[in-house]
Each structure stands twice: as structure tokens, then as C-alpha cells.
Amino acid sequence: MRKLIAVMALCGATSFLYGQGQPPHARHVSPASLNRNTGELFQESMRWNEYFFDNAESLIKSPSAGSHGAQGEGRRYMVRESSWYALGLLFRDQPGDRERAAKILDAVLKQQYTDPSVRWYGTYKRTPAEPTPPSKSELWRDYDPNWRVFIGTTFAMILIEYPDRVPAELRQRMYKAIDLGIAGEMREGRLVPAYTNIALMYGFLWDFAAIHDHNAAWKKKSVAWNEEVYRLFEKYGTFPEYNSPTYSGVDIYGLALWRDYGSSAHMREMGAAMETSLWRELANYYQPDLRNLSGPFDRAYGMDMTHYVSVVGVWMRTVLDASSAPLPPISATTDHLADIWFASHIAILGTAIPPDALAKMQHFAGAHAIRQNISAERTATAWLGDHVLIGGELTSKTKDAGGPSSQFHPATVHWRTPSGEIGWVQLVACPLVDASADENGLDIDTKGTVRLRIHAAGLKKEQIKSAAWHLPGLQVGITTDASGFSIDDGADSVDLVYSGLSHMRFDIKPVE
């Protein structure tokens, strides 16, 4: 891959690096041209958009079951997701769709912060009812800067693909909104190239704005930014934000923007090369018989992809039937339902999975181990077997598991229970940790108290002892120097607390 990029740099990157570039070209995809799986996904996505759409406000209401972005509140209006619906409407282009999309885009644009003196300049309210951040605002609590690029890239896709379907005045407002988003991000200065999913979207959007505005300074900076994102990827052959069922899917979106809309052949080639590599990495972690990615997860909103909507699962649905894809049956209360509304972007950009990766997603290629350096301090390890998935991340004791709300899961186990459901174990909380997976189990090294969560249909508290877990479909033997042990019952899971330890060994054996 490095040689290919080097050739591109020699052949065509010179003008790119000095500020030249071509405006992006539309893909000219229509709903009628979609394959069956993608068409079904798009239709289901639009059906749920319409179910939650409030015509009076021209915005989407949040699902009631804590979808990502809803913050658990339910029934509020969702600004970002409404822009996604507008893209879907313009793509579908049925009678009345253009008019509805225009009203939605107007409603979304009204939620942008336009005061250049504040840190949240250029981003958007997450919901119209959200108060303006106070002077001593806290990132994420009071505002989300990432809405600049989530909404901005959606606007860019509309302006590339469907400029004739949007009124001229609205088009100009969208271009201005993108510029404000870029200016606000530059001014805030909080984003780094290692924040992978946002860095990829930002790199595309910066390039797009620079070309449209003929802004040589932005072009030069966007080139440098994108080269640094690629350099970080090339160093270890993966992204610093590693193995996330949600955000690896957003990475693919950002890379698809690069490979289709990048202003130079060099940028498009970098995007395509990284996208191909990421798909192969995900395929290596995927067990199609269990319909799940193995851990460890840098960022995950759930442990069983068949029970919540992940963006990787949405991408995979375009090439797999509903019965095979790692997605749950969709209802109004499906966890993280809102992420299915990413389907319009995916349908338009197209899924570019290499054939060898697709084959692994369709049929399990056989038991195998994974060991992947992520950074100088971090190494991911995993074992994927016929009946069990085990994941562990070695962090050189630079990262901890921060509690039930943490997205970082450095130690994980998945298996199928006798009921047919997926059982799982995750390390919920512990101090600085090293976890390592192998064919027979999992090692955890830390110093202090460890909290593990077990979910398995048919699990009874009496089946669990400090040194042995007799779980439905799985036997686990524990060797540890822990001085204390307790069990806390949860709504649909059990938490185990081992205290005063430095090492734990889990010997794991599926039970037929």
C-alpha cells in the first residue's frame, strides 16, 4: 500500500500539495440502482425517519430508548439526525420530498452557533431546547463540537449530489454553515488527527470547503492534516481509535468521502487504501456464526451487535441479508435506533468491501488469533473460535476501564448460550490494566479492584463462585490473588467484584 501511495504522490500529488484540486463529482446513484440488501436497508431507515418526524417542527424526534445522541432523554428533537433525513429525502426524490427536505435543512441551519467569540462557534445545538452554553461551558456536557462535521459532511454530500434539488438561497446558507464549522473547529483547536472518525470527516470537509472557496490557506492546511491522519494510520497499519462497532463504521464513512469526493487523485487513493485495510481488519474480528465482532473495543455502546444498532452493522447490512447481518430486528425501542439513519449516506457512497473480506463476513474462515499493535503502548489481542470470542488489550498500564458508562472495553468474551442468544462478559471497571487473550482464555493484570459484568440468558447467581463460573454454555475457571469477592445483581446481568488483586487468569471452555 505504501508503494501505491508513493506512486500516486509522484505522479499526481504535486499540484495537490500546492493547493490545486478539482471539485468533487456526483456519484449519480438512485434508489432504483441499489442492490437488494442496500435497498431494503434504505427503505427501513426512511420508514423510521418518517415514524419519528414531526411535520410541525420539521425535525426528527428522538426514539424513546436511549439511542446515541438522545442522552437517554427520549422524545426530544434531534438536529443532526434531521439533516440525515433531509439527505435521504433528496436521494429518494419522490413527490413532496424536496419541499420537506428544504424545510428540514432550514430548521437545522437555524440551530447553528454563529458567534465567533465562543468556543462552540460553528457547531449546532443537539436539540432546539438545549440552552446556549454558559461562559464556563464543559465540552460534551454543554455542547458537542462534532456536530460541525457530522452535519457539515451531510451538507457537503447534498451540495455535491443534489444541488439542483435545493433552492439557491438554501445552498448558499449551507456553504456558509460549512465555512463556519471549519472556522470554529480551527479556532477551538481541540481536534487531533488521532481522533480518527472526526479527523477523517474533518479532513474531507476542510478539503471540500477549501476547493469551493478557492482558499489556498485552508487547502494547504487540509493537505497537511490529511497527510498526518494517513501517517498515523500507516505507522501501525491501523487507526488509533481501534475496533469500534460504531466508530469504525463512521471511519468507513469518512474514508468513503475521501475516496469518492477528495479533490485530488492522491487523497482519493489514500482514502481507498485505508478503507480496504479497515474492512480487512473488521473481517478478521468478525465471527459470522455469532454475528458479532470480537473485542477488545476501544469504543463500544453495547456488547451484542444483534441487540443494538451499530454503524458497522449498518454498513454490513448492505452486503448481507437481514438474517445474517449483525443488526437486531428494528422496532421503535431498539437500542441506538438513530444510527440506522446513517443508511442514506451509505447507500449513496456505496460499500467497497474487498472480496476476501466479504468472504470472511459470509462464512467463518476458521479459528484464529489476532495480535495487532495499535501504538507504542497498546496491543490488541483476540481469539476467535467456532463457539467463543475472547478479546484483550495490552495498554502498558496506561489506560483504565472507567466504569459502566465507559466505552473502553479492554477485556471481553462472547459465546452462544443454549437458548441461542449471545452471552457476554466485559471488564466494566478497573485501574490501569493489561489484558491478553489466547486460545484458552484471558489474563488480566492490574492493581486493585476489578468489576466484571456477565450477561447470559438463563444465568443464575448460584452458578457463580469466585474460582469457577458455570455459565449457560460456558465454563470459566478463575485463578487470582484477589483478597475479596462479591456479586451484585443487575436488571439483566450480574456484576462480579474482585478486590485486592494484581493478576487474574480465566480458563474458558465452551460447553456443547
TrEMBL record:
Signal sequence segment: 1-19
Protein name (record): Linalool dehydratase/isomerase domain-containing protein
Top-level taxonomy: Bacteria, Pseudomonadati, Acidobacteriota, Terriglobia, Terriglobales
Keywords in alphabetical order: Signal
Signal keyword on record: yes
Organism listed in the record: Terriglobus albidus
Keyword Signal on entry: yes
Superkingdom: Bacteria
